Amino acid sequence: MDANAAIALRGVSKQYGAVHAVTEVDLCVQRGEIFGLIGHNGAGKSTLFKMMLGLVAPSSGEILIDGKSISGRDFRATRRSLGYLPENVVLYDNLSGLETLQFFARLKGAPLNQCQPTLERVGLGSAGQRPLREYSKGMRQRLGFAQALLGSPRVLFLDEPSNGLDPQAIRDFYATLNELRNTGVTVLITSHILAELQERVDRLAIMSAGRIQALGTVQALREQQQAPLHIELVLASEADALVASPFFSGVPGLGVQTTAQGTTHSLVLTCPRASKMAVLGLAAQLGSRLLDLKIQEPSLEDVFFGLGDASRRAA
Ligand SMILES: Nc1ncnc2c1ncn2[C@@H]1O[C@H](COP(=O)(O)OP(=O)(O)OP(=O)(O)O)[C@@H](O)[C@H]1O
């Protein structure tokens, strides 16, 4: 167990009666990492978050945040350096955005003069005086993010933070996370929008039925799973003839599909990683018949579904 890590878990489990919400989780998140946690509904992500925050006691196992045990006496001080955006943040409609942040700042012991700059940081600078009943869903979510940022946390736990955000707001949100990461802040984030996480996390864990099924960078997970690549060959002449010919038949495990759009014909090859160079070598032999070549890595969604039924199981 790495006591220098921002977050270290060993053998962490949580049972609610007969329900095994989290089972034997080992995890280590380094300082300054943006770490994603994905999994089906009921996989145990929120429970894991709540245990790391000290809000729910583990049934067994050990959790260190910044080297401090969450069950230790000095965890109260560590807790002040944590920020949490819950999946459903409860807000009071009659308070303004600024009053809401001031309320959370008092609870957290954060300086009140951080509230207005934090509102500005999440793009709500001019909406601070308006009551929350006038806020849109996305504005509420930004305000939830703002309260998580109060007190300049060293570790941020964000449970589905981009819910209800428009594309520009999602960009702004991740730009803020990158700025925070550059100052050494550690970010744990859950999302069901895998395409959004794919380019934005340093590493991630895939949870299923309370357990971590896979862990690593997106690229490492692709390789672990041996998820196939898609290689598209755009051809000058009709592709069908090429499929009929034994051109690619020597490459093991290759799936071949033809597509046609107007006068352009393409071959889409589903290619095992190990056969990539063999396919590229053959493609080079097509000479001027090959107009273009596109290689598409499997998406995080492909990796997720590649884990089989377990990754899709709902509670
Ligand atoms: N307070 C509780 N009492 C009993 N069971 C609970 C409690 N909280 C969670 N569970 C159960 O623990 C399991 C994990 O739930 P959890 O909320 O951690 O999943 P999740 O991965 O966050 O799901 P989602 O993606 O739907 O938010 C589920 O079976 C859930 O019903």
TrEMBL record:
Domain (ABC transporter): residue spans on this chain: 7-234
Pfam family for this entry, one: ABC_tran
InterPro entries membership: AAA+_ATPase (IPR003593), ABC_transporter-like_ATP-bd (IPR003439), ABC_transporter-like_CS (IPR017871), P-loop_NTPase (IPR027417)
Protein's name in the database: ABC transporter ATP-binding protein
Organism: Roseateles koreensis
Domain of life: Bacteria
Gene3D superfamilies xrefs: P-loop containing nucleotide triphosphate hydrolases
Annotated GO MF terms: ATP binding
UniProt similarity note: Belongs to the ABC transporter superfamily.
Keyword line: ATP-binding, Cell membrane, Membrane, Nucleotide-binding, Transport
